[in-house]
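Dear H.,

Thanks for agreeing to be a second pair of eyes. The structure we're designing against is below in token form, covering all 236 positions.
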């Protein structure tokens, strides 16, 4: 049995080295991941148990260590390492994104989509820039549901002051429905624009994405320019 299991593992590794993971089924990907944590066990059976418990590969990787350990055969070490994979991926994407240049709408959209596309719930990201529109800092606000993100104007203004930002870009995703801004999106953007302008910080962009990779740019549609003109009329 041990010899047969060793041969199965060797064949899976060989396929991975030659072909990558594109042709692998979810349970085979999980088997590969489990090899290093389960050296003497039948990882095929454990992979199927995990998929039965969480529905799909994404469900397994989204699960917490505590949830993973409810599956018979999953040790604390295995649970910790599986749960860590998604966090490592996020760290990789974060490092990759920070190297990108924000020198035009195309690069800004790509950058923004990279920040919000991995979220299964609605997410808001505020990116703080210097006078040369170079990246300084960012904050991520995640919702616990698909309905509302707990972020306030004063939080973004406070951070802009703390990091000495000259500009702010706002990005967020609509998990369900169209990417066009809701009334609350418009109201929040207008309040944020006015509040930032009062401390001489410019709101440069607000982009909304949806799950179809469509997006709505407040800058392109002239909304932000109109808000800034309104601010000048009121405070000029």
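And this is the sequence the design step returned. I haven't edited it by hand at all.
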């Amino acid at each position: 049995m041990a010899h047969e299991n060793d041969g199965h593992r060797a064949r899976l590794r060989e396929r991975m080295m030659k072909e990558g993971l594109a042709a692998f089924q979810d349970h085979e990907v999980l088997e590969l991941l489990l090899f290093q944590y389960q050296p003497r066990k039948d990882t095929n059976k454990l992979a199927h148990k995990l998929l039965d418990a969480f529905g799909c590969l994404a469900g397994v990787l989204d699960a917490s260590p505590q949830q993973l350990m409810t599956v018979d055969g999953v040790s604390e070490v295995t649970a910790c390492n599986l749960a860590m994979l998604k966090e490592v991926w996020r760290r990789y994407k974060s490092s990759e994104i920070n190297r990108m240049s924000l020198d035009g709408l195309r690069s800004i959209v790509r950058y923004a989509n990279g920040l919000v596309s991995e979220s299964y719930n609605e997410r808001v990201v505020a990116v703080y820039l210097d006078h040369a529109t170079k990246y300084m800092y960012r904050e991520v606000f995640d919702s616990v549901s698909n309905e509302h993100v707990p972020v306030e104007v004063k939080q973004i203004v406070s951070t802009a002051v703390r990091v000495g930002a000259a500009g702010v870009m706002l990005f967020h995703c609509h998990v369900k429905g169209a990417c066009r801004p809701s009334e609350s999106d418009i109201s929040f953007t207008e309040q944020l624009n006015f509040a930032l302008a009062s401390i001489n910080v410019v709101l440069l962009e607000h982009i909304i994405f949806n799950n179809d990779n469509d997006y709505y740019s407040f800058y392109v549609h002239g909304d932000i320019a109109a808000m800034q003109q309104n601010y000048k009329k009121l405070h000029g």
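Two observations from my side: The longest strand covers residues 202-210. DSSP finds ten helices and five strands in the chain.

Warmly,
E.
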